[in-house]
Amino acid sequence: MNEMVQKPSKPGDERATRQRAAREAATTPGADRVRVNDPDRTMANILQVATAEFADKGLAGARIDEIAALTSTSKRMIYYYFGSKEGLYVAVLEEAYRRIRRIESELHLEDLAPEQALRTLVGFTVDYQLANPDFIRLVMNENMHRGEFISKSATIQELNIPVIHAVRDVYQRGVAAGAFRPDVDPVDLHMSISALCFFNEANRHTFGAIFKRSLDTPAATAQRRESIIEMIVRFLRP
Question: Signal peptide location in the record (predicted)?
Answer without folding.
Answer: none
